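Q: What structure does this chain adopt?
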Amino acid sequence: MKVSVCIITYNQVNFIGEAIESVVSQKTNFPFEILIGDDFSKDGTRELITDYANRYPDLIRPVLHPHNMGQNGLFNTLATYRLAKGEFIAAMDGDDYWTDPLKLQKQVDFLQAHPDFSTCFHNALITWEDGSPSQELNPPDQKAVCTIEDLIGEDEIWFMATSSVMFRNVIKEYPDWFKKSMSGDIPRYVLLAKYGKIGYLPDVMSVYRKNRNGSSFADREDDARFLKNRIEMYKGINQELNYQFDPLLKKNIARYYKKMLHSQQYRNSYYPKNLMALKYLRLGSPGRQETREILRDHVVPPVLGRVYSALAIGIYRLRKSLNP
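A:
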């Protein structure tokens, strides 16, 4: 088996048919299989998958879990990937679809011609649920070759649409820190980059839908639980890379501690928000002015802040009365 196409879905009955059709219509000179991992959908997605599997019994293998696997679809993804027999895995989200019938062929040709590459991806068209104009995900100056260095930074780096990626089926077991992450794509690309370079094909060959049932809408940057998960993910990446990029990743982690100060759980509290503020100051090393503001707003106990304000106002009024 040359390629395993792994479609990951949950409650996407309005989209899954188009996703499957776009894979079935691929033209290749090699055999491929389609695994469809459904995370216990309740909207008719499973029934539609079963219907397609009956129509293409030699091509489609449904992976219908008896319960929701959890972790924002991560365990569904891992369970589906474990069943993949292909030399390469082509990822697919159930609400996206491919637009080029030669997509698989082009990516396999690339990876076979470049054995020192572990992964390749292509440009994608982003379409919006609200009808906003579509746009290409990757810019004209997108790098043709990427390495681990291109995936690590002070900010979160993301430039590969899930359904544009094909990679060698080389990761047989994921580390424990990976299994705790709510984001499978970002750390997976880091792991794959350890096996080889990442290539880019400028052809637009898929559509990336932005809709409210997509996993990206589970990213809640005002939710402390999501932010803590991101922190642990980047700590895991830092350890995985033997702290080679420690200064950059500490800056990245610091950003999430700063966001924690304004999260639903902490914004109106003092403790443990003050600890989060101190961690941000230690890891982020902000400038003097921002440090002073963070200390004033999030570290100094509120009662001391009120006393300080009262004293400052009292001293101001006293000086004014003495110097009318």
